[in-house]
Amino acid sequence: MARESTLRFGAQTDEVTSLLRIVNMVRTGEASTRPEIGRVTGLGRGVVTQRVDHAIEMGYLEDGEFGASSGGRAPRTLRFRGDRGRIVVCALGALHIHIGVAMLEGDVIDQNHRTWDIARGPAETLDTALAMVDELLARTPDVPVWGIAVGVPGPVDFETGRPVAPPIMPGWNGFDVRRRFEQKYEAPVWVDNDVNLLAFGERARRGDDHIDLIYCKIGSGIGAGLLSQGRIHRGVNGAAGDIGHVRVPESTAICRCGKIGCLEAVAGGWALVREAEAAIAGGATGYLAKRGADGEALTPEAITLAAEDGDAVAIALLQRSARVVGESIAALVNMFNPGFIVIGGAMAGAGEIYLAEVRQRVYELSLPLATRDLSITPSANDIREPLRGGVEMVREQLFDITFPRWFGDGRPSISGVLAAS
């Protein structure tokens, strides 16, 4: 009982510390047998056996197959019990809802997607999202939900899980997104900006937990997710990376946030649609004009398709957007010195028409040392990116950040994870 109490309340005894490390070593693949654990940790054989047996008893680990022999008896491998819980991701975009479910190992095992306007408000949007989650949970293994990630297309106070004055989300300011999911699923919930989830997804795709990377999403709006040595940089209040509202010199365009001259109001997808409509009204011809004449709505995606078709208006709009976006990214490069910049969102769909302009401005305006080892690439353009990123974020929160708080309980709880943060 004394040992259970010590574990339950997170006291960092040598036993707790070594147990946490052993479970995470097996979970991440750093070690997969008892002898490997002993070599990496320096713990004696008897101590390793005791710790591993305790982790198995608590339900975190299990014995697997026999491993390769190095001359003596073949050691039995160990596996992390990734089947004990599920992770749910709800990625809300400006015009869609994307839901995914993963087991604790991290692979998304089922997903659902539908078109949706985030401007319909939090009540209707979350009712729809929760119904979609229920549908997926009914189709996946019936084990507890251990954690939930919610991504939203606007600034978020990460500590409270509440959007803060999101320009394209009327009615969402200060709304307690986290509480709706906690009440329904009785699991810890983390709410983050959608671009941060994309940055997490890129980290997982590259398999580099110490990467320095900027993920720039240039879609209807503009934002950036910043990874420093593999850790997301949110800033004090979660506003880091919100480059969409950096001022563009000499611009007088009115932004959706109410300010004048924001990057998003000049180079974002909605701004390009506005400019395309004005050009067509002024007599421009080509793919976009024909689309408008046929009664089809102009969208950022339509502009990228038109550029690929050689539409002069679309090409000019994309190149102008890329130039001013490249200027803002160059400022980030000089301050942040990343190894990688990934361009995602609808504008990235234009390929080299867009990327070439971004690269040119970044290399022109950044310090030589800051760009010496810099790679600027398009995103994988995979609809599952935010889902993988959300799973990665939850796994980091559960096992790298809050694990000592709930380890002794055998599974996370709202009070054991978030109340102590």
TrEMBL record:
Cited PROSITE patterns: ROK
Stored InterPro entries: ATPase_NBD (IPR043129), ROK (IPR000600), ROK_cs (IPR049874), WH-like_DNA-bd_sf (IPR036388), WH_DNA-bd_sf (IPR036390)
Superkingdom to which the source organism belongs: Bacteria
Protein family membership: Belongs to the ROK (NagC/XylR) family.
Protein's name in the database: ROK family transcriptional regulator
Protein species of origin: Microbacterium deminutum
